[in-house]
Amino acid sequence: MTTAVRAAIVAVLIVVTVTLQVSIFSHFSISGVVPDLALLVVIAAALVRGPSYAALVGFFAGLVLDLAPPADHTAGRWALSFVIVGYLTGMVRADGETTIPGTVFLVASGAFIGTSIFALTGLVLREPGVDVGGALQVLPVAVGYDLLLMPLVIPLVLLLFRRLEPAERW
Length: 170
What we know:
Elements: H1 3-22, H2 37-49, H3 51-67, H4 77-93, H5 100-124, H6 132-164
């Protein structure tokens, strides 16, 4: 399989994931928080391919999410969050095999870090409606949603990434 075909498959995965997240899953929002399917794709990329690949997938997934309607924030905030989460998760994964409890920890910490960075950049940029109290209320919901969807999303995306190209040795 050529690199262009693999990149096209990942691009389609990102677009489909973001489309589901902003359309169908937006009906299940709690306090304005929807399940972050794009973040789960980035974490799966980190688990299979490592930090560099996950940071790249995170950038594009975050950018698509930043630009997808009804985006009401400064473009680039999700991209920055996903790049950092993808890189950090890939670095932790590079240290050894990840078990099921380890994957649960990585998803929970990735959701926490990603949502925190998004909220902090909103505070720094003085986005309307972003405050510390609201961010503290959103964090547990975001982490809970991602943990709830993890058993459904992560195995499927891991399988896809493994089929596209086997994991690199670090």
